[in-house]
Design goal:
The chain is an alpha+beta fold. The chain has helices at 2-10, 34-44, 65-79, 124-232, 236-255, 269-273, 276-287, and strands at residues 23-25, 31-33, 98-100, 105-107, 121-123, 304-306, 312-315, 335-337, 346-352, 359-365, 382-388, 391-393, 399-400, 408-414, 419-424, 429-435, 442-448, 458-462. It is elongated. Mean pLDDT is 85; it is low at 80-84. Helix 4 runs antiparallel to helix 5 (236-255). It contains seven helices and 18 strands. Helices cover 39% and strands 18% of the residues.
Length: 467
């Protein structure tokens, strides 16, 4: 009994405290159920041994078949006391049992063999060998499946990490944009209030000047009234004498017109309030910038860096970004596309390329392959203009001879007519044009190489005139 107990302890998994199931062994010679070990590793984000904490150097652990066979033998001995082979047929106990591979069934070689004619019947050892071979093949497939799932889990974790960084970046940009607008509106408010105070000052000065004039005239009239009152109290010769002397002054005073109120004594409200919000909005339009195409950074290749305002893109100079391989991302080439696709109507935008020496500009269909090798041709869903090694070429690979190197390219898409045209935006000369039947949404497309010694490091989307 002590030996059996010791054997049970030897065959017990230290994690689940049950008999091993699909046992695996580490280099430190500790063994565990395969499921228990991987569950422990995933839960604790480690590859250390649960017993001695030694780090495992193996990526994939194979089942310890010797230990597994020992478990099977021990189980059979427990089920058949004395270590005897289980009897398959009570009528022929002396016969060695056979195994039907087709039905996975043990059978007696005397009384049951005829029931399995046409089946693949082998010895028990051969059956064990073949089934183990199949099981090992399934095990390798499961290992591969597990690796694929782990890869997807890692990708999801990377995506979530990048999403958090995107939220923080968007929050910073939104706050900065609206802080700019808040400062502008505050300045406009202060300017409008300053204009109101100036108008108030003008009105105050005007009304005070009017009041001074009125007060002066009132004082003159009152003085004449006092003179008249005194004169009326005089008698005879004194009255006539003084009347003669003051009559002319009174006549002059009475002949003068009464003081008139000047215009502009009130606040000029139209001057202060006229279209105050509209005028501020017009100024704000000059402050903010509109882009007909917004780049989608989730599609950008690892080597491409999209600007914070999502209008420009440049090639990384030293290293690629650590971004996940999400479904939208271009992986094979250094490409990025716009965030909005077009399926109807006419659209156009300009791309400032300056003296950048390596780029492809145009449109891509929605289902363009983003993961495998391909060329920038209509057959692959790309309608573009290319600059490479100082030569311009169209989608057919035809070299284009231009009278000058355009600094700005205008892209014009007419979905209804099925045309893509590219112009030199400086003089609106046509560079190339493509005609096709667009059955999918069309997305603005950009491929950007290294800028080298060029002054222009970033190509940028901007609004074209006439939009």
């Amino acid at each position: 009994m002590e030996k059996i107990s010791a054997m049970k302890d030897f065959l017990t998994c230290p994690v689940c405290l049950d008999t091993f199931k699909e046992p695996v062994s580490l280099t430190c010679h500790h063994s565990f159920c395969s499921k228990c070990l991987y569950s422990y590793w995933n839960k604790n984000s480690t590859r250390n041994c649960p017993m001695c904490r030694r780090k495992s150097s193996k990526e994939h652990l194979e089942v310890n078949f010797a230990l597994k066979e020992l478990i099977v033998c021990f189980s059979q001995k427990e089920e058949a006391p004395g270590g005897e082979r289980p009897v398959m047929c009570t009528s022929h106990p002396e016969q060695t049992p056979l195994f039907c591979l087709d039905e996975s069934h043990f059978l007696c070689s005397v009384c049951e063999f005829s029931l399995h004619l046409g089946h693949k019947v082998v010895t028990v050892d051969s059956g064990v060998s073949e089934k183990k071979g199949r099981l090992c093949s399934q095990q390798q497939s499961l290992f591969q499946k597990r690796d694929q799932v782990l890869d997807k889990q890692t990708q999801c974790e990377q995506i979530q990490e990048l999403a958090h960084a995107q939220v923080e970046a968007c929050e910073r940009h939104i706050k900065a944009e609206f802080e700019l607008l808040h400062r502008f509106l505050q300045q406009e408010e202060e300017s409008a209030l300053r204009a109101l105070r100036q108008e108030q000052s003008r009105q105050t000065q005007t009304i005070e000047a009017q009041m001074v004039q009125i007060r002066e005239e009132l004082c003159t009239v009152e003085q004449n009234l006092l003179t008249v009152e005194d004169l009326l109290k005089k008698q005879n010769m004194d009255f006539l004498t003084q009347y003669r002397d003051t009559h002319k002054d009174r006549q002059t005073l009475l002949s003068q017109p009464s003081p008139q109120l000047r215009p502009g004594l009130l606040i000029n409200q139209p001057k202060v309030l006229a279209n105050v919000a509209f005028n501020a909005w017009k100024k704000m339009r000059a402050l903010v910038q509109y882009s007909p195409v917004i780049l989608d950074p989730n599609t950008a290749n690892r080597w491409l860096y999209v600007s914070e305002d999502l209008r420009g893109v440049r090639h990384g100079e030293t290293e690629e970004q650590q971004v996940p391989d999400n479904p939208e991302r271009f992986c094979k080439y250094r490409e990025v596309q716009g965030s909005e696709g077009f399926s109807s109507g006419s659209h156009q935008w300009d791309v400032e390329v300056g003296d950048h020496p390596d780029w492809i500009i145009g449109l891509a269909k929605e289902s363009v392959d983003k993961k495998e090798d391909r060329e920038a041709t209509p057959e692959n869903g790309l309608w573009c203009l290319m600059l490479d090694d100082g030569e311009y070429s169209d989608v057919d690979g035809k070299t284009l001879v231009l009278k000058r190197s355009p600094q700005r390219i205008r892209v014009r898409l007419n979905c209804d007519e099925g045309t893509v045209s590219l112009f030199d935006a400086g003089d609106m000369s046509l560079i190339c044009s493509h005609k096709d039947r667009f059955k999918e949404k069309m997305f603005p497309y950009f491929c950007v190489g290294e800028s080298g010694d060029a002054e222009t490091k970033e190509i940028k989307v901007c609004s074209s005139e006439g939009l």
